Amino acid sequence: MTKFVLPSPAISSVAVAGSPERFAVRRIFCVGRNYAAHIRELGNDERDPPFFFTKPADAVVDSGATIPYPPLTANLHHEIELVAAIGRPGFRIGREQALDHVWGYGVGIDLTRRDLQDEAKKMARPWDWSKAFDRSAPCGPLVPAAKSGHPQKGRIWLAVNGEVRQDADLAELIWPIADIVSICSEAMELEPGDLIFTGTPAGVGAVGPGDTMTGGVDGIGTIEVTIGQPK
Known about the structure:
Blueprint lengths: L12 E3 L6 E3 L3 E5 L3 H6 L9 E5 L4 E3 L3 E3 L7 E3 L1 E7 L8 H4 L3 E8 L2 E2 H9 L5 H4 L5 E3 L3 E2 H4 L6 E6 L2 E7 L7 H11 L7 E3 L7 E2 L5 E6 L3 E8 L3
């Protein structure tokens, strides 16, 4: 039995709908600019191919959590997303086989320190500090694909304090789930436990202490998190 000089970190995990079991999280990949309207609202070119950034596994937070307003930002944004959970390993997966590697789906929120991201873009620096911070990846319970199927259309939405801000359809994804899984696997060998946040529609905006975000994807589920006071 391996002995460690310090206690090993807790295993990050996501709830599974209707089950006491949880889905252990290995890595989190996020797709940038995968809805044309969101690309346009940020002033980017919607013809660009998909690109990825990452968050640490322990950035996941369950639905129902209160998340302290993070440090170093005055412009924290919400981004509602469909999340695909990988259940089978694969490298250079063909598009036709890609969905066979998806264990299930959930609803996630990619929290973004937008001011830090804008600064990083201007200086041609990495986005890590704007995306990969503590508790930046809330994720609702996962639904097995055997139950939900592989969604290709359906409403995706987010409201802040009851006011709808993001409202779109999964059919508007520029790169559908099978493409995203296949393209991601060209660069990284996907493994069980990987989560892929598949991109956000238009309507992103700021949230602050006391704001409650509620969102959902038809046929998959909902999520609700509240922003608390800074630590």
